[in-house]
Structure formats: structure tokens, C-alpha cells
Batch of 2 targets.
Target 1
Amino acid sequence: MADFVVIAPALILLLASGVVLFVAISGPGTLRPVVLGALVIAGVFALAQGAGGQNAEAFGGAVRVDAFSVFFAVLIVAATIAVILGGSEWIESRAQRGEVYGLMLASAGAMLLLTQSNDLIMIFVALETTSIAQFILAGIARDARSSEAGLKYLLTGSVSAAVLLYGFAFLFGLSGSTSLQGIAAYVAAAPEGGRLALLFAFALVAAGFGFKMAIVPFHAWAPDVYQGAPTVVTSFLSVASKAAGFAIVLRVFYVGLGGGDSYIANDWAIMFGVLAALSMTFGNLAALMQTDVKRLLGYSSIAQAGNIAVGLAAVAAGSTNGASGVLFFLGTYAATNLGAFVCVMAVSQRIGSDQIRDYAGLARRSPWLAGILTLCLLSLTGIPPTAGFLAKIYIFNSAIQASGASEFTSNLGAQMVGAPPFVANLVDGVVERWLVLVVVVAVLNTAISAFYYLRWARTMILDEPPETSALRVPAGVQGVVAVAAFGVVLFGLAPTPLITAAQHAAAALH
Amino acid sequence: MLTLFLMLPIAGALTLLLLPEDQRIKPRVIALVYSGLAFAVSVLVFALFDPAREGYQFVQRFTWIDASSAGFTVQYALGVDGLSAPLVLLTGLLSLAAVLVSWNIELRPRAYFAMLLLLEASVAGVFTSLDLIQFFFFWELELLPMYLLISIWGSGRKEYSAMKFLLYTIGGSALMAVGFLLIGLSAGTFDIAVLARTPDAELILPGALVFWMIMAAFLVKLPVFPVHTWLPDAHTDAPTAVSVMLAGVLLKMGGYGIMRIPVSLLPEQAHTFATLLATIAGFSVVYGAIITLQQRDLKRLIAYSSVSHMGYVLLGVAALTPVSMSGAALQMFTHGTITGLLFIMVGLVYDRAHTRQIADFGGLMHHVPFIGVFMLVAGMASLGLPTLSGFVAELTVFLGSWDAHPIATAFAVFGVVLAAGYILWMMQRVFFGPPSTRWASMPDATAWWERTAVLGMAASIVVVGVYPAVVTRVIEAGIEPIAAIVGAA
């Protein structure tokens, strides 16, 4: 029984999901209060668990509730509430609203479990539960695009799950344990003979999770699904699902590998460093050419995943604040992306289009939405006084700190026959600090991203609107975007509380 | 006091943005009050600044972002020394002038003045920040108002120019962030004052790389050849007040930044690359001047002349002597007022003639003597006529740079000759010659706001020209510690 108390927040959401689905089948009724009520209770329960400060384990250690899981529980619950409030116009107008609510609750509940999982089997079960709910959600609009999105998501997701499972099988075969602590013990023993197999296993695991995080080269589904799925679902995927993905990657790689101390730390640091650089560059270059806002945000989310992966590389390279950097970034990203998506939902619903050119003159039709959307775009670019600016600085700071701590040595310069010593030293200096290079790629990408984010903002502010009638937006939606915008500015000017929370949560992984 | 200087424009911008649409108080009046108060504060800061005291003055600091366990502690730290105090005054003066010359803006005035004030605040933040991350915060904050000001209220290819400005600046400053983080992490603090006490500290990357990562941003901003191409476009298409701010204070962020950060924190690298920088500077002066000679558009002409004049600043810095750096600092102040005045005068002409093509004009002195006379004053100051402030600054730069970089200095002196050429030739084609029937009915500048702005700027040019010690005693106090750091390296 005590075990069920530990996972109560997730349990509440999963039970509520069943109730909502049942009620929806048995007839019409008001579902929204039940859904929101369940979410609020789960969130409060999670907060209470966090306030206790005690780490709790359940089911023989398969589930672990600590500051880390609480951070994500609050983040995911808050994001789900925001998505449901912001998207209520669309959801309430659908015949399948019961299914939408039910599946969202199920998915969110499974995400909470995912961030608490401490065991490979538990991780897989939770991951699949949340994914399957999302596959259906992506296709729920039942038009051609949405169905395509659902099917594509399902197919890529299934392959990823298979790859992930393959990696898990290797890990279990090597370590003889499914618990992360067991794997950590195996890694800590540093068996040279198992090194290659271990790397292979972790590469497979990273590929499987790469799908959830949408980082290159496991990103191909993201633009299509982002564009095809209903915007409510897209925003849920881009915030809650992505956060859960990064959470479990952090836990598996941090706990399972003992952070930056393990003997293969450098290998996976390089792996994430390369993936980060690829993600940012590819995502930004592809986003430059987009004319559809949801597709643009899809590519943008790939690029942002690259920024977060810089933090993962920093963790692996031994940074003390890489993990908190990832958490801080995810927190600010949640506020920013939610603000952007809820604005997009509200606008697209009214102008009946997702094309950037149809956003022309939005500033005159709805200064409120246009202003907040612009603020969110500035934050995605990383321009002060928004949260995105500090989040980037913080995560890059952790990478540079890690590059100072890393003991990677290069003899590339020595091998360069005929090169003057000055050049050879420079080459060695740069190669040994390769994480700084990743950061350089990241900041140059910031400049690229400025072009397409601000081009969109420019269209809204400068171009002539096709018609000048004001857009009427319900108070609930206005409230959600206002809260998101408040978060974006608050975390940009007074980030200390969120950073402290992120550090506290990250410390729980040690 | 400095917080007040920073917060007044921000408060003004917020007041303007949050006020309901139909107000009896005009937005311009609100902007005038706030920028006037900010100017008063800047005058106070400059007047109360004590050159005899060491270190930063009016310092205010508290911890802004406290993540010390992660090695990431950012302060809110403001302070001025002799280098920044004149620039604070310049920012206050030019912002007030910018508000005055925008008196007749009719397109969305609330947003316009709010952006103008936000621009003032971000520039003020750059000049007074004593923390690298805070410095970078304000450096990037300036992008948004500047972008909107050019792209909404500009003319011509305004959207192209605004985007070009933005991408050049962001591209340049991207690497600066990395450089700051590298310096900050190696030393364990982002406090500029603390960092300057241990120059050339061990970095985890070669110092030369870090030096150039940071210099890149400042050289783009200054700007010098070959990264200057955004400037003529931005100037040509910006509204008058924004040109005034751009040439008058924004470019100074580049020169100020070079002296405050790379030169003070990495003096050894500054010595290593001094000759290269001086070469760039000398080339920039002459290149800018030759291009200026060929311009047919009044505003473009002054824009290119800025490229040439900013070359003097870089030359003075590259010589790394106390005299040359004082000259560079003085050149920044004087160029701010001179070019600011030039842009105001061109703006006044353009408002009346709706053209800026030099070939369209002739004999304007007969029709608009007030505009003509003060254009002449600004032009003479720009070409370095003695008793006007440009002369003092340029002479000091040359005197200080001659020993270190004779060839580059010789080129720069040649730039003065060319400056005389393009200024006088422009004056002759536009203002002198027989009266023209086309412009016979052009009204002179008679409105109080036009005259106040013009007279205020002209007065500062004459005062500094006749009695430069007003500014130089402050500047010397600021350059002395920097020169000591550079000399010791």
C-alpha cells in the first residue's frame, strides 16, 4: 500500500483518465473540471512529496521519488494544465473530447512514472504507455494530415522502442541487472573487456531516447507530426513529452553511468556533443525555409533539443552544473514554448491558417497575442530580457566549465608534420577543449535562428493585415498566455528561484 | 544614481506602453520628461565625478543571479570611471536630442518613443555595467528597439537594413558570449573590476582566441573595414533620431568595449595584435574617407565618414599609450556630438526637401541660414578645425600613436586631408553657390525643439574645442589605470 502512496500523483492521473474515458462513453457531461481537478490534485501531491524532502522508493526500487522526479512532475502537470486551458476551445468543439482528455491524462500520468523510473523494465513500460497515448492523440483529428502524423509517429516510435529495448537487453546482459544502480555498479568496476559492448548498448539507448527528445538523426518524425497533429497535441509533445524524454536520459546516463566519473564518460560526452551540434545546425537551417508556423516550430524544437543536448554533453564531461542547466533550460523552454503554442492555437483557430504570411499585421488585430508571441520568439532566440537568454548562457557556461575540467588529451598537433609549433599547440588546445567548439557552434546557431524567429515577428508587427477586424480571444486563453509571458520575463530577470530548484533537483541524482 | 539613470528611460518606456491609447498628454511630452530627467542625472554624474579618486565611482552592486555552487554568479553592478563618465553624459545628451528631433513623429508615437527610451536604457546599461554577463545582457537588449526603430519608422529598404544590422550584431556578439564565459570561468568571477586586477589570467583556451572572440563583436560595432557594411545601410534607412543615436552612442559601445574588456583584461594579447589593429585602423580611415568622397546621398556620406572617424578610435587604442588612448576616448565623445549634429542637420534638410541627393541641392545657405550655419559648424568640427572639438581629439590620437605606428598614423593623417575634401565639397555643392529657385521657399529651422537640440549640441562642440580640459581631465583619470595595466603587460 505504501508503494501506491509513493506513486500517487501518477496514479491519480491514470485513474482520472479511466474515469474520463468511461464518462465520455456513457454520455455527454462536463469533463473539464474533472480533468483539471485531477491534474491540480496530482500536482499538489507531487509538491507535497517534494516538500517532505525525503527520497522514497517503491516496488523494490523500480520507482524512486526524489527532488528530480518532483521537479519534472510539477513541470509536466503545469504544462498539461496550460495545454488543456489554452486548447479548450478546440478540445471542447470536438466530438472526441473525452478521448483527448483521457489520453492526455494517461500520457501525463505515464510521464510522471517515467521520470520516477529507476529500472529498465519500469522505464520501458512507462515510456510505451506515454507514447501509445500520444500516437492516438496525434491522429485524433482524423483528417488526412493528422492521420498521416499519427501513423508516422507510431511507426517511428515503434522502431525506436525496438532499438531501445535492444539496448536495454545489452545492458542487462552485461550487468546482470535491470536496476540503474546495478548497472552503475557494473560500470564503476570498469571492465575493459566490456567497454565496446557497453558503448554499443548506450548508443542504442541514446538512439531510442533520441526519438523522444527529437534530436538529429532521430528527428525525422518531428516536423511532419508537429505540422499534422492538432496544435493542442503538438504543444503537449513539444513541452511535456520532450521534458520527460530529457528527464529519463539524464537519469539513465547520470545514475547508470555515474556522471562524468565513469571510464566511458568521454565517449558519451563526445556522442552528445556531436548530436547537439548536428541537431542545432540541421534544425536551424531547415527552419529557415519554413512557411508553416507549426512546421517551423517543429524544426525549432529540434534545434532547441540540440541546445539542451549541450548540457547533456557537459554532464558527461564532468560539469557540476550541466544537469541543473538542462533542468533550468527545460523550465524556461516550457514557459516559452507553451506561450508560443497557445498563441498559435488561438490565432490559427481564428484566421483559419497556419501560414506565416497569414500572421501579417497580427499586432493590429490582437496586440496582446502578437506581443506575447513576439516575446516568446525573442526568448527562443535568446535575446534579453527573456528567459531564453539566461537559459542559454547558463547551459553554455556549464559546457565551458566542463571543457576546463575534462581530462581529454589530444596528440593531433604532434602528428601534424611540418606544422609550426604555434599551430600545433593551437590545434591541441582547441581539440582538448572541443566542448568550447560545440558552444561556438551553438552561439553561431543563435544568430541563424534569429533570422527566422524574428522574420516571423516582423511579419506580425510590420506587414499590412488582410483585414483589420480585431481578434476576440476568450479570457481563459488570455490568462494562460499571460502567465506564460510572465514566466518568460520573470525567469529572464529573476531566475534565481528556478535555478535553485533545478540545482536541488539535479543534486538528487548524485 | 546610476540605477536612476538606467531606470528612468525604462520607466518612461513602460509608462508609454502601458498608458491607454487616448491620452491628453502626448507621448512626446512623456518621452521628453523622462529623457530630460535622465539627461539631468547624467550631467550630475559627470559633474560630481571626482577625477582625483581611484577606481569606479557611484558603484552599486548586489547579487543578481545566485548560483554560486555552479560557478555562475552574476552581479547587478553599476559604476563609472573616467572612461565611461563622458559616455554617460553623451548618452543623456544625445537621447534628449533624439527625442527633440522626433517631435513631429506621427506614426505610432507611443511605441516609437518607448523604443527610443529602451534604446537609451540599453546603451546606458552597456556603459555602466561592471559585470560581464550584465554587460552582455544590455548589449543584446539594444537589438530589439534598434531593429524595430529602423524597420518600422525608417525609409527606403528599411526592412533589409534592419535585418542586416541585427544579423551582423548578433553574429558578432555570439562569440563574445563564449569569450566572456571563458574569462569568467577561468577567474571564477564575471566582475570586470576584479578581473582587471589580474590581467592575462590563465585561460583554458589560448588567449589569442579569446581575445579575437571578444574583439570581433566590438570591431563589428565600431565598425571598421571589412565588417562595416551594415552601417551605411542602417544609417541611410533609419529615421533621423535613430541615426543620431546610432552614430552618436551605439558605435561608441564598440570603442568603449575594446578598452574596457579585451585591452584591460587581456593586455598581452593587445600588445601582440597592436600592429594588426593599427593596420586595420589606418586602412579603415583612408578606405572610409575615399568611399565617402564618392557618395551622392547626404546621409550615406556622413555614415561613411563615421567609418573613417571610428578608425581614429581604433588607431588610438592600438597604440596602447596613455596619450593615444585618451585621444581615442575623447574622439568617441566628440564624434558623438559632431556626427549627432550632422545627422540632425541632414534630417532637418530632408524633412523639408524630401530628398537627400547632393546633386539636387545648391545655394541652401541663402534660404535656410540657420541650418546652413550649424551644418558648417558641425562640418568644420568633423574635418578637425582648431577650436572645435574634433581637432583636439584627432591631434591627441596622432601625437600618441606616432611613435608606435608611424605608417598607420601617416595614413590616418591623410584621412584628415580627405575629410576636408569631402566635407568642404559637400558644403559647397549643397549650401553654397547661387540661390536656387527650387528651394527658395524652404523654411528655416525655427521650431523651439529643433533649435534647442541644435544649439545644445553645437555648444558642446565649441566648449570642448575651446576648453578640452572639461572632458579630458575626466578621461585621463579613466585611461590612467588602463594604461598602467597595458604598460605592465
Target 2
Amino acid sequence: MKGLLKIALKLLANDRGKFFTLILGVTFAVFLMNQMTSMFAGIMRKSTSNVINIGAKMWVMDPSVKNDRSSIPMPDYVLDYVRSIKGVAMAVPIYFGSGLVKLPDGTYQGANIIGLDDTTLFGRPPIIKGDLNKIYNSDAFIGVVDSDYRRLGSPDIGSVLSINDHRAVIVALAKPASGGLFGTPTLYTTYTRATQYLPRTRYSMSYILLNPKNDSDIPYIQEQVKKLGYKALTQKQFEKTIKNFYKYKTGVGTNIMIMTLISFIVGLSIAGQTFYAFVLENLEKFGALKAIGAKKYELMTMILFQASVTSFIGYGFGIMISSLMIAISKVRIPNYAAVVTYQNMLIAFLMVVVIAGFSSYIGIRKVLKIEPFDVFRG
Amino acid sequence: MKTILEAKNIVKYFGSDESKTYALKGVNLTAYYGEVLYIVGPSGSGKTTLLSIISGILRPNEGTVTVKDKNIWQMKDDDLADFRLNHIGFVFQDYHLFPKLTTTENVSIPLFLKRQNWDKSLKEAKYYLEVMGLGSKADLPVYKLSGGEQQRVAIARAVVSKPDILIFDEPTASLDGETGRQIIAFVKEHLLTKERTIIIVTHDSRIFEFANRILHMEDGKLKQTTDNSNHLDEQKTITKLETQ
């Protein structure tokens, strides 16, 4: 069979024009599919950055909350109630808000302000420079050095900023696990200071961060929180809620899915049509092979092999080009959301398998139909 | 004379009911080892249909075809394909070579179908190309060869698997008269052995002189058999080429 496969490969590769068109079609489709799904994966990952960075096992919130950025403030008694639930090891408040930072050049930049529990500082990001304890100094803030930090002029330790016309001093710099989705820089401070610096509503507590004593306590805690009319989600559940919001409520998911589908159809059409033309051109030769003594499965294997080789070369090029594009884009645009994951590559691979299968199918159908007698008849 | 192929009462029709058209109406044919057998007749006389049936390509509606004492139409499809691969060599009217493959690769195809390894197959193919006088063109793609050369590549492909029966369908149809004659003369001189028969379908009377027997067909029936050679044993055969 090795000889036949080699012949199949030569038949394909020696017809350079068609071979190139086939590879180009698949490459283009894979490039687009991978680009789209990578964009989607990046958006999904960044959309949950706060939840990932803070790292609490459970989050308590108003039942209407659909994503971390649209928190509904809760009264303080909810915190007391949560702390009293059996199985809760620790529960602390956290404040999410946004302030207006006045930059040295006189311009303004919006920033996310996260107020951590004054006592525990639970949910703080890993400090890479400076002293965390200085957070208790007056006007102290921690700067989060992600791709958006440059929007604040990348202030170093000791830099003085103005947040909502309040003096703010950077006392430490932190590196988060994941950057945010909206290109807004983030500053951490204590819960009390955050509520002093930012305009308040009647209640100020955005979420309650909670760690259960054991994972087995989670269902009971959720049940008890629900009795009070609130919602307790595990980190994974909250991430899923946020992702679902972006997927289904914002159109991001639908648009990307449509684009991925279009890329797939384009690839399928180009590869399918070119491969069909290739098989059609060699149809009589395949008929002659049949007459000589080639069996159906041998011809099918040859065609499947040709389609697979083309598709997988195209797949390799497509992944390579899209990864390169994403890497270049990330250098040029630090907050570029796309990220190539194994899942993206797997999706593109599965789609390529479908393209190879479809292309083979239409070729094989034609080849199996031709009778050697037709070759004699001319 | 020893029989290699025997077809009895072959009936073949196409279509059904009112549109049924008979291509063969009870044809009997016997081919012997060591002869060149021509099947001739006007277009539509059933030559190609008969050729397809005796070579295991087209199933007859009635009748039997026995090759080397085996009824080929009792075989399953895959066995029939193996039978064709091992016992029959085809030279098609339009050659049906792969133009983008080299001549050697084209000739090797039957050997690859026999699962012979790549290098050995190419070596054997090159030998047959040498025999056909195309040794210097072994590495050229087929599309760069002339019609006559392509014909010879097709012949090399047909004989590379050492078949018992060589079948030619209108071998001179695409060639000029002289080239056609040269090729058939060459085939008879170099490829006909005592262990092989060559069956040629043609209406080119210029090459009739190379036949041992000529079967004349008309309207799906065998009309006449002409014995063209009384001295089969006198034929010049060069068997050493294939035994080396």
C-alpha cells in the first residue's frame, strides 16, 4: 500500500496549481477559524479576569447579577448572615467600582477600583514590587501592572495620582493572572478607602467573598444564602455565568460563531470544489486503475490520503499563520484579547477532518461510480 | 494448441424491456497460448463489449468465460480484481497514463497494486522501459512524451506484471500508420511468448498481417474466423526478455 500512497501523493503534489489551491483553501479556512475561536477564547478568558485574579472559592451576590462588572450592592447584614452559616470558614466584603484618574498631563483616565477587606486583604493580587503593608498608609493604592497600566502613565511606587479629586499614592505594584477585557487599568485599595473615594449608593458591598470549610459544605451554604434571597456561586459557576452573559447576551458569541461557520464553509467550498476538479480530471485514470486490478478500498484509500495530506498541511499552515498574527498583534496591541488554546486548535482540526472527509467523499463517490468498461468505451 | 481462454455463448444486453439493446448475441471464442488474436468489425459490432467481458471487466448476462480453467464470472469482485491484476495486461486506446507521473512510476503501478516495494518496482519498470526502447525517458513525466512513446509506456505498464493475456483496445487508433505498425510488430516480436496470448481489438487493416487468427464480428455475432498463420511455431519470440 505504501507504493500506492506514494503514487497518490505524487499525483497530488505534481499538479502544483491544484495542490497549491487546495492547501490555500484549507489554510485560509483554518486561519479564519482559529483566529475567530482564539478571539472568542481570549474574550472569554479576559471577561472572567476579576474572578480569576481574586481567587475566592465562592461569591455571594444579588440574584440579578449577570456579570462581575454589574454588581448590585448588598446591605451589610448579608455579610453577618453569611458568616453565621455553618460550614463557612471565612467571608469578607469586596467593593468594585470605577474612578476617574487625573493624569499628570491633565487628562483623565477611567480606572477600576477594587476595595479589599481592610483586615484580611483577601483577594489581593501577587505583589511584585513595594510593600503590601503600606496599603494601610493614608491614600495608598496598589497598581496592577497589566497591559492597561500604561494608560495611567505606568506610575511607579511613590507616584501620586488624583482619583475623583482625592490624592492617591501608589505603594506597591502587583501582577495579575489575567488582564481585563475592556482596556481599563485596575487599582486596589482597602474596602474603607474605596468607599470613601468613590460615589456611594445606599449599600456599598458589591460581593461577599467566601471560603467554605470543606467543599462538601458548598451545597448547604448555597441553600442557606438562597433562603435569604441572595445567590452564592462557586468560582467556576460565577465564571460560567459571566461567560454565558458575553456569549448569549452581548452577541459576541453569536457573531464569532457565525464567522467561524462562514470560514468553515469557505474552506469546505474551496477545498471540496478543487479536490472534486482534481478527481474529475483523473477520473478515467482511476477507471483504468480499476480495470488493471485496483480494488475499491485501494482507490478510496488513495483519495482519502490525498485529501488528508492536503487538509493537514493546510491545517499546519493555518494554525501557524494565525498564531503568528496573534503574536504580532499582541506586540502591537498589548490588550489584544485572542489566545490560541488547545481547544481552538482541536475545533479547527475537527473542522479540517470534516473538510477532508467531505472532499474525499465527493471524489470517492465519483471514482466508485466509474466502471472500467466506460474506460474502454472512451 | 493449448487453450488459455474460452468464452461460451456470451450474451450481453444493455437497458431493459423496450429499451433493451443486444450487444452480443451468443458469442463463442477460444484463445490459445502463443497466438495473436484479432477481433475486428465495424463500430457497434460488439468488439469492445466482448473484450470487456473476456477480460473480467463487464459481466455478461449469459454465458461463461474460462481463463486457465477458472470461470472468472463466478469470482467475487475483489478476486476478479486480483485476477485481472495477475493475469491480464491492458493497453487502452487512450493509454490512460497519469501525465504528471514519470514514465517509470506509471509503469510501476501494477506492481504497487501487487504490494511490491517501491525501489524494486521502479527497477522492474525501468527494465521494461528499456525493453520498449524508452530507457532514456524513464524519469520524464509522461506528458512530455510523443503519442507513440506514450503507447509504449502503456504497453510496458501492461506487461510489467507478467500477465498471461495482453489486451489491446484499438492500439493504433491514435498513431500514424507507420508508428502503429512498428509498435504491433515490436509487441509481437518481443512480448508474445508461448505462455501468453495477445488479443487485439482493431479496425485497422494495416496491422492485420501480425495476427495469427482474426475474428470478424458483426451485429453482436461472430461472423467469420480467418486463420492468418499456419506456422505458429515459426514465430520469432524472445522469451529471454521476460525471464531475465
